[in-house]
Amino acid sequence: MAYPLASLLSLLLYWRDKHQARVQGQRIPEKVLHLSELCGGWPGALLAQQLLRHKTRKLSYQVVFWVIVALHQALWSVPLWASVH
Predict the structure, then answer these.
(1) CB count in 10 Å sphere of residue 66
(2) CB 9 within 8 A of CB 44
(3) pTM greater than 0.70 (yes/no)
(4) For 26-78, what is each residue's pLDDT tens digit?
């Protein structure tokens, strides 16, 4: 249940940040967005990036995002691999 809730939170944070960018309001810090991804919200963040076209062109942001995704994949791969062997 943690991944869907964290993903929803990430999607909402991205939506809010995109909205604030359009109206030149106070933005959500990138470290907050990354923290939501790290807490399991990376699927929602990925969806938000595609739907909202937000944070897709900033290379420094994308590098950190994909490191977080790889970290989650590695953390899930180890227990799955161990259970097979």
Answers:
(1) 12
(2) yes
(3) yes
(4) 999 999 999 999 999 999 999 999 999 999 999 999 999 999 999 999 998 87
Q: Residue holding tokens 């929602």?
A: 44
* C-alpha of 58 from chain center: 14
Residue 6 to residue 43: CA distance in whole angstroms: 9
Give a three-class secondary structure readout of the chain.
CHHHHHHHHHHHHHHHHHHHHHHCCCCCCHHHHHHHHHHHHHHHHHHHHHHHCCCCCCHHHHHHHHHHHHHHHHHHHHHHHHHHC
Tokens of 17: 């940040």
